[in-house]
Each structure stands twice: as C-alpha cells, then as structure tokens.
Write a structure and sequence with these properties.
The chain is mainly alpha-helical and 127 residues long. Helices cover 51% and strands 9% of the residues. The radius of gyration is 21 Å and the shape is elongated. Residues 1-101 form the Recombinase domain.
C-alpha cells in the first residue's frame, strides 16, 4: 500500500501473503491454493475471486523478501520484507520443478505438423 509515496505494509494483506506461501508449500498447486481461498470466501484485495495468475504473481514477487525494483533501479529494503528468503526459495524451487525444457526447432515443427494433421482428419480436410 502507498502512503505519501512510500510503501507501507498492510498487516492483513501481509498475513494473507504468508498464508498463500504456506498453502503453496503444502498443496504444491497454484490452482489448489486459489480454490482453497475461494472456498473460504477470501477475496483478492480488489474483491475478486482468486485465480492461478494472481497466486503466481504473489509467489514470484521479490518485494516480499525486500527486493525493490523500479525503472531498472534495484535496491533492498528490509522494511518491505514479509517473508524469509528460505520460504521464498522453497516456493521458487517448487514452482520451477515442472518447468518444461525448451523445445528444439525440429520438435516444434513435428508437433505442429501432428496437430495440423489431426485437425485435418477431424474436419474432413484431409480427404
């Protein structure tokens, strides 16, 4: 939250952020964390239902460990920290566990050709 152009920690939101980190470590699923929060009637600060993208933004936001970056200027501000480096690192490791390897060009072409062939068969364009 901004207060006179200074970030100020909202204790309620900080507690929710810590809870989201803990839920993610337990559940290991962003959609599941969103589902739990929605089921409990907890909304985003804007009053909306939680979505996977909202959870992902929170779990990757380095501001919660005090890393501050604006217009290319990076700084560390301990007063902005609401979670430990250890917790942030655990969550980051879990988030990256299923990160797919980039496909090489031949594999991309092969996959595209297979999808196009299946589409043609289903729509009758292959005849």
């Amino acid at each position: 939250m901004l207060d006179n152009d200074q970030l100020k920690i909202n204790d309620t939101e900080a507690s929710l952020v810590r809870r989201i980190y803990q839920l993610y470590i337990r559940e290991r699923s962003m959609p599941q964390v969103a589902f739990i929060l929605n089921k409990e009637g907890i909304t985003t600060p804007a009053g909306n239902d939680w979505k996977t993208q909202s959870i992902q933004k929170i779990l990757s936001n380095e501001l919660y460990i005090g890393q501050y970056c604006v217009a290319g200027y990076e700084d560390y501000v301990n007063e902005y920290r609401i979670i430990s480096d250890d917790l942030f690192d655990k969550v980051t490791d879990i988030r990256h566990r299923f990160k797919p390897e980039p496909m090489d060009k031949e594999r991309k072409i092969s996959k595209s050709e297979r999808i196009l062939s299946e589409y043609r068969k289903k729509t009758g364009l292959d005849e």
